[in-house]
Amino acid sequence: MSTDLAVIGAGPAGLAASLAASARGVRVTLIDAGEQAGGQFYRQPAAGLGARRPQELHHQWRTWERLRDGLAASSVRHLTDHHVWCVEQPQARQAGFTVHALRGPLQEEPATVRADAVLLATGGYEKVLPFPGWTLPGVVTAGGAQAMLKGGLVVAGRTAVVAGTGPLLLPVATGLAAAGVEVAALVESAGPRGFVRHLPALAAKLPEAAGYAARLLRNRVPVMAGHTVVEAHGDDHLEAATVAALDPGGRVRPGTHRRIPCDTLAVGHGMLPHTDLAEALGCRLDGVNVHVDDEQRTDVPGVWAAGESTGIGGAALALAEGHIAGRSIAARLRGTAPDPRAWAAADRSRTRLRDFFAAVDSVCAPPTHWTEQVTDDTVVCRCEEVRAGAVREAVDELGAGDLRTVKLLTRAGMGWCQGRVCGPAVAGLAGCDPTPARRPFARPVPLGVLARAGHPTGTDHLTEADHPTEEGPS
């Protein structure tokens, strides 16, 4: 299949870019792993669940309706259940990029899309930091609790503690409370002073924050600012969580421990961008984010990026970046220089929201000394069952000075997730700076698919109905 633009990811950024480019005559193929458009932010319950008021699970619902209806009315080709594992750059005798994906119930059926340009709108994922008891059934990530509620209309338990740091905790706590869960506490490690110091930059979202505060008050949810989770308790399932106050230096204050009975602990410590595809393409990173210019172009010709992959910033920022990228791509594919005045409103929104989330990052950082609460017998890498003591031994006794050496000595990060989940925790315990791991593939790939890659009879298994080619079905 050939197209002008391949957009990878059907969240807010991917949808905005697809609609902006398609409206200007670009042939767009939108590729996404989900069964429906919307990404994680606009995750929808399956039609069979019969949700009567799905809008109650979301804010910015009208924006979603405009995106959904716009996609349905557009000429954008939307490929669902396509898990992209690699994007090949143009070769000497090959024009355009080749996007490789897996589809089907077992994600073993190969599919390819060839495109003149690529937009990476791959989103982000949660940062997970361990603590004693975090592997107990009933302990979930904050985003996981929200995904279960939005996508499955289910909750993990009857009494919940929502803890960690960052803006995501607010919709998770209010969403669970609205679903009938008793939210015993919202535990935010950031203290009030940090928010006051950055009040001018945070002012843009004060009305939204006030709405969440009103819902927390209405549902009688206690808010514990400047606190953190110290330990989760239970034998075969979660029974309680211990929280404690933090001093200004980020250490637990002695004597402030409080045990809260609960059967659900939803914990989130911020998010990280998905950059696997960008790294494999050789795109420059700024820290952990994909570097882009004012048009959302990466430093690899023909590749744009928008949304969380360029820096965690929420749906509104992703929409602005996606719109700018889509208009830029449409102009560049026509061979003309785009006029930035055409997206002036989106640019103003982008600037304002980037300033806001820069302030959020300063305020809502994990406690500085979180590793002090991690005991040696706490599992850090769940895939390989590596404990914190093994990581400390690799550094203190075996001389490991970087993440790669720690990985070789302990196997931390060698499992199914390839360090995507445990990487920040291992880096924190080892005292190393997190370093991007440039992987050739963004997800596990069957060996049979790799063996046939590059051979048209092997990689272009596309049905005529869903995936037509110029030559017809293969």
From TrEMBL:
GO terms for molecular function: oxidoreductase activity. It comes from the Bacteria. Residues 452-474 are annotated as: Disordered. SUPFAM superfamilies: FAD/NAD(P)-binding domain (SSF51905). Residues 379-428 form the BFD-like [2Fe-2S]-binding domain. Keywords: Oxidoreductase. Residues 461-474 have a biased composition (Basic and acidic residues). Residues 4-321 form the FAD/NAD(P)-binding domain. The keyword Isomerase does not apply. It holds the Pfam family Fer2_BFD. This is FAD-binding protein. It comes from Streptomyces spongiae.
